[in-house]
Amino acid sequence: MERAIFAGGCFWCMVQPFDELPGIHSIMSGYTAGHVENPTYEQVCSHTTGHTEAVEIIFDPELISFKDLVEIYWQQTDPTDAFGQFEDRGDNYRPVIFYFNEEQKKIAEASKQALQDSGRFTKPIVTSIEPAHPFYPAELYHQDYYKKNPANFERNHARREAFLKENW
């Protein structure tokens, strides 16, 4: 198994696109890239921990590649918005592809360049590509949120969904 960590705004919205793909062993919502160990949701939302909301994906590279996951990731985000995603604003919602090794870094960078070169977006692609940091699982009520709270999830997901339909 391998790991991937992606930040793309609210972690509630980042679980569902990957959740039932072949080769996905698990997806966990959590926090990464900050300076506080085991932060709480309230601490992260205070913008004082440096963390961003993210999802950690454990996957079988024999069934789905990191490259495939990166391609799916792009199609869940606005890669031209560095200071949040859709309704979710601030540093804790910034878009980031975290890598665990040089191969993942090369894949992410090549994919980002290909997206920039494609002309799909007129603005620059600003999603960060950074080394992985410790990942701290979010509280249990955040895990599988889209399944537990479908009505609230749909409300929070509406603007994202409209963007994705228009641009992807």
From TrEMBL:
Keywords: Oxidoreductase. GO terms for molecular function: L-methionine:thioredoxin-disulfide S-oxidoreductase activity; peptide-methionine (S)-S-oxide reductase activity. Pfam families: PMSR. It is an enzyme of class 1 (oxidoreductase). Its EC number is 1.8.4.11. The active site is at C10. Residues 4-153 form the Peptide methionine sulphoxide reductase MsrA domain. Transmembrane segments: none annotated. It catalyses: [thioredoxin]-disulfide + L-methionine + H2O = L-methionine (S)-S-oxide + [thioredoxin]-dithiol; L-methionyl-[protein] + [thioredoxin]-disulfide + H2O = L-methionyl-(S)-S-oxide-[protein] + [thioredoxin]-dithiol. Gene3D superfamilies: Peptide methionine sulphoxide reductase MsrA (3.30.1060.10). Has an important function as a repair enzyme for proteins that have been inactivated by oxidation. Catalyzes the reversible oxidation-reduction of methionine sulfoxide in proteins to methionine. Belongs to the MsrA Met sulfoxide reductase family. This is Peptide methionine sulfoxide reductase MsrA.
